[in-house]
């Protein structure tokens, strides 16, 4: 299964979204955000192996209008923090289940781009309709990228099942990240100021 990078999948949408990419407007906000990131315990975030470790963010059902539910936004925030701390790791967003023409993976990719994540880091798997399919469909993308292991990002109540399904799909999971483990309010003082953006 070939995954498209965000750039390949939707250049027009990328151009529209890139215009709304927000960077810190004041140096003080950036300093506060970096302090918040620095307070994350080393035991909280997994060790990574650069380009050979993917950050895989699992989807969560969209609302009928195609917008993201708060739980999915929290998963994205946790994955975003991991991506900031592992700038060489590719990011795979996985989830199909379209609503109003929008898949979970597309909504996640759009959100990450609005947070100024480079488009070439984002790889979209938008056909999975279950946790098992998240793992089975992400594994070939990882192989295509030359990735040997993954950090899985999901909700705490979904973590054990997600890790088990990735192991069954032949993916070595070297770490996990949940919104509960990375809650750092100061990190969200920069970037777009939308609670569910």
UniProtKB/TrEMBL annotation:
GO biological process: Gram-negative-bacterium-type cell wall biogenesis; peptidoglycan metabolic process
DUF218 domain residues: 54-178
A GO CC annotation given for this chain: plasma membrane
CDD domains reported for this sequence: YdcF-like (cd06259)
Signal sequence region: none
Pfam families: DUF218
UniProt xrefs under Gene3D superfamilies: HUPs (3.40.50.620)
PANTHER family according to UniProt: ENVELOPE BIOGENESIS FACTOR ELYC, INNER MEMBRANE PROTEIN, PROBABLE PERMEASE
Protein name per UniProt: YdcF family protein
Organism, scientific name: Nocardia bovistercoris
């Amino acid at each position: 299964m070939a995954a498209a990078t965000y750039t390949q999948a939707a250049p027009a949408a990328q151009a529209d979204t890139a215009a709304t990419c927000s960077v810190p407007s004041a140096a003080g906000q950036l300093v506060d955000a970096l302090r918040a990131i620095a307070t994350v315990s080393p035991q909280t975030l997994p060790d990574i192996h650069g380009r050979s470790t993917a950050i895989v963010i699992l989807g969560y059902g969209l609302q009928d209008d195609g917008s993201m539910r708060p739980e999915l936004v929290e998963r994205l925030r946790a994955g975003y923090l991991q991506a900031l701390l592992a700038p060489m790791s590719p990011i795979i967003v996985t989830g199909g289940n379209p609503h109003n023409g929008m898949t979970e993976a597309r909504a996640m990719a759009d959100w990450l781009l609005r947070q100024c994540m480079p488009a070439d880091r984002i790889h979209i798997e938008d056909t999975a309709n279950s946790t098992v399919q998240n793992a089975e469909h992400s594994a070939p993308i990882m192989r295509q990228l030359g990735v040997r292991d993954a950090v899985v990002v999901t909700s705490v109540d979904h973590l054990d099942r997600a890790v088990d399904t990735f192991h069954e799909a032949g993916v070595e999971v070297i770490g996990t990240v949940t919104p509960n483990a990375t809650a750092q309010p100061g990190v969200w003082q920069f970037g777009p100021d939308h609670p569910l953006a």
